[in-house]
Amino acid sequence: QVQLVESGGGLVQAGGSLRLSCAASGSIFSIVTMCWYRQAPGKQRELVARISSGGITNYADSVKGRFTISRDNAKNTVYLQMNSLKPEDTAVYYCNGMSPRSWGQGTQVTVSS
């Protein structure tokens, strides 16, 4: 029903920045909460940030103050601006709704020290 395609990952030095994008298809995009998740090697997938249809945001404590989630409903796209990146931010990043039933490919973020 809904397809999500993440992009924007890459290799960056500690302290650097990246902006991830999530392009979504589906008519309900504009009325649902969207989230960014990440999964580091050997760890469980965790919720990083979320944004409601009305623009209310929430962040994991580990990224608060460094990451910013935003959305452009006209473009069916969710963004994650990541600043002051740390090696511990290294993970595959995924976008999805609040109750994912499936996952896309994600985009790899690697932060070197």
Structure description:
The protein has a six-stranded mixed β-sheet with strand order 2-10-9-4-5-6, with no helix packed on it. It is an all-beta fold. The chain starts with a strand and ends with a strand. It has strands at 4-7, 10-13, 18-24, 34-39, 46-51, 57-59, 67-72, 77-82, 91-96, 107-112. 0% of the residues lie in helices and 48% in strands. The chain is globular.
Q: What order do the SSEs take from the amino end to the carboxyl end, as H and E?
A: EEEEEEEEEE
Give the structural class: mainly beta
Extract low-pLDDT stretches.
none
Q: Which percent range fits the helix content?
A: under 10%
List keywords for this structure.
globular, mainly beta, 6-stranded mixed β-sheet
Quick structural overview:
The protein is an all-beta fold and 113 residues long. It is built from no helices and ten strands.
List the helices and strands and how they pair.
Elements lengths: L3 E4 L2 E4 L4 E7 L9 E6 L6 E6 L5 E3 L7 E6 L4 E6 L8 E6 L10 E6 L1
Parallel strand pairs: 2-10
Antiparallel strand pairs: 1-3, 3-8, 4-5, 4-9, 5-6, 7-8, 9-10
